[in-house]
């Protein structure tokens, strides 16, 4: 009986060792481009681009080219990703000066357009999808339906809300003036 107990403890030790040292995550690298069209009332040449930093999905290289004649922008991306970590959100912004209806004073407004992904690490053949931003529908959400077959559900939506929260995230931010005295 003592040999059987010793053997069991050895097997158990080996099993624990293998379980602790065999954990791994799949990762990959992808290089692709995405083209975004903008409605005529959105000045593509004035856009600034940003992305949300995401641990587990990082860019090796990211830049863009503007086509003012077609009012579109092409994003060139090379990213490294861990499966299960979603692609970073891309945010397009520009500032405009408008008159406030309440005070007839000029105010600065920052418009924002969000490209958000759900369940998507990278975009296999996503360059074929036509993305278009409009002021009425300033957010694009892309969700992978079947990654192996490169099928995506693409929606333009008007407002963003945090799921489960009563919180509205606006696509228009008004700059608050700093008092000088």
In short:
The protein has 181 residues and is mostly beta strands. The chain is built from one helix and twelve strands; from the N terminus they run αββββββββββββ. The strands form three sheets. Strands 2, 5, 6, 8, 9 and 12 form a six-stranded mixed beta sheet that branches.
Total of DSSP H or I helical runs spanning 4+ residues: 1
- First-to-last CA distance: 88 Å
**What is the approximate shape?**
elongated
Strand count, sense and closure of the main sheet? Answer: 6 strands, mixed
Indicate the percent of residues in helices. 10-25%
Can you characterise this structure?
11% of the residues lie in helices and 48% in strands. It has 181 residues and is mainly beta. It has one domain. Strand 3 and strand 4 (72-82) form a beta hairpin. It is elongated and about 90 Å long. Keywords: Signal. Residues 1-24 form the signal peptide. This is DUF3108 domain-containing protein.
């Amino acid at each position: 009986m003592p040999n059987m107990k010793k053997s069991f403890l050895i097997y158990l030790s080996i099993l624990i060792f293998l379980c602790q040292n065999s954990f791994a995550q799949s990762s990959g690298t992808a290089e692709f481009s995405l083209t975004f069209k903008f409605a005529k009332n959105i000045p593509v040449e004035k856009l600034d681009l940003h992305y949300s930093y995401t641990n587990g999905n990082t860019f090796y290289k990211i830049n863009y080219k503007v086509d003012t004649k077609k009012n579109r922008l092409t994003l060139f991306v090379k990213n490294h990703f861990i499966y299960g970590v979603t692609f970073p959100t891309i945010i397009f912004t520009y500032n405009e000066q408008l008159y406030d209806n309440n005070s007839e004073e000029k105010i600065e407004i920052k418009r924002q357009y969000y490209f958000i992904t759900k369940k998507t690490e990278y975009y296999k053949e996503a360059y074929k999808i036509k993305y278009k931003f409009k002021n009425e529908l300033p957010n694009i959400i892309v969700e992978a339906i079947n990654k192996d077959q490169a099928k995506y559900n693409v929606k333009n939506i008007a407002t963003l809300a945090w799921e489960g929260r009563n919180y509205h995230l606006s696509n228009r931010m008004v700059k608050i003036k700093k008092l000088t005295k």
